[in-house]
Each structure stands twice: as structure tokens, then as C-alpha cells.
Amino acid sequence: MATKYLKNAVGRMIPEEINGKPVIPFQGVDKYITEGRRYAPPLASCAKYPSDGDKRVQDLKTALKKAGIKDGMTISTHHHFRNGDLVANQIFKAASEMGLKDLVWFPSASFPCHEPIIEYLKDGTIHHIEGSMNGPLGRFASLGGMNGTGVLRSHGGRYQAVQDGEVVIDIAVIAAPTADPFGNANGLTGESACGLLGFALADSQYAHKVIVVTDNLVSFPCVPWQIQGNYVDYVVEVDHVGIPEKIVSGTTRITRSPDRLYIAELTARFCDEVGIIRDGFSFQAGAGGTSLAIGNYFGEIMRQKGIKARFARGGSNQYLVDMLEEGLVEYILDGQTFDLAGVRSMRENPNHVNTSPFTSYNYHGKGNFAGLVDVVILGATEVDVNFNANVVTHSDGYLLHGIGGWQNCLFSKTVILPIPLFRDRIPIIRDEVTTICGPGELIDVIVTERGIAINPRRKDLIEKTRHSKLPITTIEALKEEAESICGVPEPVEVGERVIAAIKWVDGTVIDVVRQVIE
Amino acid sequence: MAKKGTAGNQGPGVRSDCYAALEIKRSGGLQIQLDSKVAALFKNSIQDLALQILKFYGIEHAVLEIVDRGALPFVLAARIEAAVKDCLDVKGEFLLEIIPENMYQTARDRTRRSRLYLPGNTPKLMLNAGIHEPDGVILDLEDSVAPSKKEEARLVVRNALRAVNFYGAERMVRINQLPGGLEDLEYVVPHYLNLVLLPKCETADQVLQVDERITRILADARLDYPVYIMPIIESALGVINAYDIASATDRVAALAIGLEDYTADLGAPRTREGRESFFARGQLVNAAKAAGVQAIDSVFSDVGDMEALRKVVLESKSLGFDGMGCIHPRQIKVIHEAFAPQPSEIEKAKKIVLAFDQATEQGLGVVSLGSKMIDPPVVKRALKTIELALEAGLLAEDWKEAEGQD
């Protein structure tokens, strides 16, 4: 039977069904309102749990068996160990050994270290992945290697899907740097310390069965307990949950590229000129080299003006921690820590606060922190002339990145994308992006090395920069300049098959990714 | 025997560049083997360009291998042309359209605080050079290009002069030492070049040779725009002859000093304090100013130390230099800031210029400020200070009106 497609609110054709489930096409920002009740996992009875509180079982395979793992189940993991995770591969190795089929892996993100998972996608142990696919997994999926269709969600979208029951987690496996036999866990100490475990919070609360895996078992109580043992079924002790040096391997150095530093400086100058950098403001800059440089320039401006920021949103790193300790920033509200300085600060400094996608990004929350942030600095692989942006695919069609918190951050008061006008020969500003991840109405400013384009919707910013010496231009002019330098890109041929769906923060589908033809 | 020619760069670190290998065949037509990082978006346009170039040189049967790492068309064209010329004795030049933005001229006495060196065979570094707003860019054919790459670098530099927008920077080329450098001129002068840097210059005669060749090339191509010469003094003999060199022809716009070679010639180690070159720098400034041209200092090679650079620039300025070279874009801003007039200088210059305006308005032959007479050279310097202050953004364009309201 031929698949039926529907056009969504950003003009993309979306199949009616994905992985056998009906799809709701994107309807516009804040248009889709869900009703009903939150999903709830089955009730537990403490009578069925060890009265001495010791939930330890001998190994991961035993825990999976006890948790009742069977074909077709959804297994979740978190990505606080980033490219140093040692647990996810073990889960599916065990599952493959048990001869299980058609599992769904529901990670909060995947990394190149998860390349071994390809084997389990090939042998049918895993049917598909619902989560970002960075690098090798994305390449594999792009070429049509996965049996099912990938589903990509933002960090907030993941919480939304769990909370409204769109995704039912059968078993959550939570790797923890420190835990006690009762299942209380945190990310602050131990050799695999990763700061916090916020991405696993929903999993702990909503999964039918929860397994905590740790390489640093401490006697009860493990405090603070960001993951509460009362949600946990089994605790497994292993030699290593992660590779410490890869856990803190986020881009943690300020860029040295003169071109990127120039873009960073322009971005900071823009924020200063339009009055964003004022006493008590708030900001979020990511962990990329350019973003770090922007944070640094913000610091310089704040020092000159003798002002401070009320709060900054993490991911945190040495540079942000330095600003906190210098008093330039009063609070860090942090979703993940990118280096050991971030971990230490979160452990020691009460003003360095751990947050989860629930507090910051969840569509079903009664408000979100993301919307309170004055300015957020984000990246993109492509932007179109209507300011729609792409973060997941490259212009050649390959799905190589996850959404992360990107979509959620678009709700900040001003969204700025500092990006080069072209990478190698590939223009970044296009007539149409390969994949729409964020609608243009939420994206305010594009800063390139060859000019700054302000979304025409932001009349206030246009007015404030009317007499500015900054190189203010239009998005169309930037696109034309990129094409005059690089040439007009030829249309990329894509396959018919949909290999991944891109969810919007509310659970609707904003775009799909099609198979790449080699 | 099959003829083979190669050009370009390949390897893991190569970006925005390509490698081309051409093998001429007796039959089989033209075959392009393309391995490109950007094939999904530019496969057809790369192939079309390659075929166009091969046909331009009358090649009918050949295999052309291109390993492309995101090279822009001007780079692809230069590499393919170089591969052709590496295996065939052909003369014609395959030229892409010159972008209209590049058809500008510069003034002999324009501001030349910074000039950014760009290795002639490394196109990647050229692409964004203009965004850092150096006063000039130097496409270098001399020391930064390996001897075996000299031929192909000429083509890259020629194509860059036509295709890369440097956003108003003065477009300079450093040719090779004479006599080889004279041949370089043929490749670059006809493409709206603004200035030629003549390295290791020791005599006025060398300047005249370059002058004559430029004049002839422009005349042959029926082109008419100024092409200046900036001789670089890099030896003890050059320092002695500095005035003759600076005043050899009207094309000379500035005199530069190259301290690496100069100190080697002296047999003295180059130090951060630079006492060993104090005489040479003083002599060069004096010769340049006597000839009515600008004096340009050497480069500062520690690209990580901006504070040390700032000190060096301030010293240069105090010796009378008008600018210096840079080898990294981040140095440009520091150099511009340090060459910018100090607030006290600007204040003084403003008063002098206003007094001058007033005197002119009243038809007075003599400018006076309070009870002091102001000499014409002082007025001239004040005007220059104001110009620099405006360029550095230290003074509003309408400063005279604002001053009037006081």
C-alpha cells in the first residue's frame, strides 16, 4: 500500500504513519495542544522489594532478564557520558546473546562510541533508534541500514514523549557515576563523574523497570540523590561505566580560527549594541569553539560595564565556571557539564544548579526556563532565506547530528545563529534547507563573517541597529554572496524511503529525512 | 610515451583546495575522474569546468583525475591549468570572469598600516582574508612558496586577484627576487593589481626594471591604472641605497624593511628589543620620508603574543613608520589600534584643522592658534591624524559640527 503524505505547516511532506504509528504533522509554533492525562507506569509495591534495601543483582544480563526483557521492548539510556559511554553497547550485546529481536533503543543521544550498535541493527536485535544519531550510526541510517525509521527529538521533546505516553519505556538503564544499593544515584563523584544525571530523570520516573549501573557503589545513602532509589528496581555493579577522559570531551577550547573569532566578536558586539548585555541579563552559549569565544567576549563587555548576568544556562565548562567564580554570573542553571571544572563547580558551588529537561524544556511543563533566557547562541548546518534552520543533516543529505536542546532553546527571547557563510565550498544559507528542524519565526539573527541578517519579524532589532556600524544586511543578500563565491549548488538526489522523522517539541513531525543515494 | 602533469595539494590537512593529475592519451576522448568532498552539490559544475579548460587547450584525449577538498572554482581552474602546463607546452591563459568588485584602484598615499601576508599556493587562507579588514593583502609568490610550486602558485594568485573579494584591501603581490620576479609580473599585473612588493631590493636599477616591465605589460594589454611598487630592503647594501631606491620612480609608494634577512646579512641575531636593526630602521624611515613615500616596518612573528606586538607597533610608530606587515589576521586589529592616533593627538589635530579652516575661510595666508603660528607641515600632519582617527572610528564623521556646538 502506498504511503499517504500530508503537508505540514512548514510545507514539508510528512507520511501518515511512521513505525506503524500515526503521525501528527507540525501545525505551527504553540498550535498543537494535547489533552488528557500524563502517562503513568504500573504501580509498584514496596512489599515486593528487598526489605534491607539491597537491590543488587550479579550483572547487567541478569538485571535485564529480571526486568522481563522481551522482543519489541523499548530500552532507554542517557548520554551524560557522551563519547565515553560503556553501558549502551553492553545492553545490546547481552540482548543479542539472548536472541532478542526488534528492540527499540531510546537514548537521550548517541555518539561515535556507539558504532558497535550497527551490528545489532544489522542482526535485528534492534529495530530502530529513537534519539539522535551522531556520526557512524547516522551514516548507517542515512544509507537505509536500519529496519525501522529513526525518530529524533529534542531533549524537551523526549521528556514530552515520555510524559504523554508517546514513548513507553519498558526498561531504563541508568549508568551512574555513584550509587548506593537502594538505587539512589548522582553524577557528582566517582571516576566517571559527569556532573549530573538530568537526562535520565524522566526515564527513572516513567519506565516500567529501572536498572542503575554503577562503578562506584557507596553505602546508603548516596546523596544527593538526583535519581531516587524509590524508582529503581535493580542495581548492577560493573568495573567501568565510562571512559573518564572521553566523558569530558566536549569542545572545551576557545576557537583559534581567526574567522570564527571574528564571527564571535561580531555576535558579542551585536548583543551589546541592541542592549541585550545589561545588568541582570541571562544567556546561553553552547560548548562549541565559537560559542565559548562569544561567552568570553560577553565577559569582557560585562567587566568593562561593571555589570553581571543573573544566570547563564549550561552546558557548563571551565570558561563559564570562571565567570561564575569571578562574580560575572550569579547562577549557572546547568543541563550538562562539559569538563571537570564544570563537575567540580556543580559539586561545590550551590549557585551551580543541576537542571533537567523537565525544568527547562518540557512541552507539558507549566512553563519552561528556556523562555526566560535573554539570548541564546546556537549553531546550524544550514539556514534558508525564511530563517528556517537545520541542525541534523548536511547539505548532501546525511543525517549526522542530533537535535539536543537546540529546538527548545529557540524559545529564548533572542535566538542568534553565528555561522560561516560557507564551509569549504558549501553555502550555508540556502533557498531551502535539507531538513527543517526549527521554524524561521523563532530564529532572530544570523551572524556570518560577511554580514548580519536580522529576521524581518524582529523590527525592534532592525530599528536598534539602523545607525549601527555593524555589517547589517539581509538574508537574501547573504545567500547571493555565498552563491557568488561557491556557485549555485546542484539539487541533491534523495531516495524515496524515509529513514528518520524529526519531531517538533510538541510531538508533531516537522520534517523527515530521506535515504541518501550513494 | 604518455605525458603526465600534476598540480595542487592533497592529504589529510588540505581544505578548500584540490589536486589535479592529467594524462594525455592518444584516443578515448576526455575522461574526468572526480573524487570530491562536495560532489553531491557540485559534481556537474566541476566536470563542466574541467572539460571547458581541457578544450580551451585543444586537448582531445586525456584522463584527468581531480581530488577535490572543497576548492572554489578559481582554485579548481588554476590547478587544472597548472596540470595542463605541467605536461604540455601551451601558452594561453584560462581566465574566469573578473568580479566587478575587484576592479578598483588605490591612491599612492593611502593608509597602509597593515598588510597581511597570504602564501600564494594556499588558497584556503585567501578566502576570508578580506573580512579582517587589513589595509592590504599580499599574495606571496616568494618565500612562502616551495621552489617546485612556483609555477602553479602564479596561477592561483592570478585567479585570486580576479575572483576573491578582498573587500577594498589594497591587492599586493610579492614577486620573486629579480630576475625571476620579472616573469611573475606577466601573470599578475593585468588583473587590476594595485601594488608589487619587490623583495631583497638593493639598487634603484632593480626598481626601474620592475617599473619598465609593469609599464610595458599595461601598455600591451591596453590597461591604464596605477600599479605601485613597494621595495623591501633586506640587506646592508639595500639600507645604504634606501634613498635612491625610494626615489627611483613615481611608482614607489612605500619602502618596507625585512628584518629576518637583514639581521642575517649583518650577522647579528634578531632580538625582541631590535637594537641590532635600529640603524637600519632609522635609515629606512629617513630615506622614505626624504623621498616622500611611506615607511613600512617588518612583521612580528609571535602570533600568540598580542601584548608584545602592541609594544612593537607603538615603537614602530614612534620611529616614524606608517605601517607594518602581519602574518596572522588577529594581528591586524592590534596594529590598527596601535597606529591610531592617541586622544591627545586627536584633540590637538582638531584645533589645528579648525584654525586652518577658519584661516582659509577668512582668506588669511597664515594659520594661527592662539598666539602661535602654525606651519603648513603641521597642518598637513594634523589632517593626516584626523584621517587616521576617522578610519579608526575614534572620531565621528561630523566632528566639526559637534565641535561648533560647543
Structural overview:
Chain A folds into two domains: 49-130 and 167-247, Glutaconate Coenzyme A-transferase; 258-493, Glutaconate Coenzyme A-transferase (3-Layer(aba) Sandwich), CATH 3.40.1080.10. In chain A, α8 (258-273) crosses α9. In chain A, the strands form eight sheets. A nine-stranded mixed β-sheet of chain A has the order 18-17-16-15-19-22-26-27-28. Chain A has a seven-stranded parallel β-sheet with strand order 5-14-13-10-6-7-8. Chain A has a three-stranded mixed β-sheet with strand order 9-29-30, with no helix packed on it. Chain A is an alpha/beta fold. Chain B is α/β, with parallel strands linked by helices and 406 residues long. Chain B has three domains: 3-87, Ribosomal Protein S5, domain 2 (2-Layer Sandwich); 100-339, Phosphoenolpyruvate-binding domains (TIM Barrel), CATH 3.20.20.60; 343-405, no CATH class. Chain B has 15 helices and 14 strands. Chain B has helices at 39-56, 73-87, 124-127, 150-163, 180-188, 204-220, 236-240, 242-246, 259-266, 278-290, 306-319, 330-339, 343-361, 376-391, 399-405, and strands at 3-8, 18-24, 30-36, 62-68, 114-119, 136-140, 170-174, 195-198, 228-233, 254-257, 294-297, 323-326, 367-369, 372-374. In chain B, the strands form three sheets. In chain B, strands 5-6-7-8-9-10-11-12 form an eight-stranded parallel barrel, surrounded by five helices. A four-stranded mixed β-sheet of chain B has the order 1-2-4-3. In chain B, α11 (306-319) links the parallel β11 (294-297) and β12 (323-326). In chain B, α1 (39-56) packs across α2 (73-87), α2 runs antiparallel to α4 (150-163) and α13 crosses α14 (376-391). Classes of the chains: A alpha/beta (518), B alpha/beta (406). The interface between A and B is medium-sized, with 21 and 26 residues.
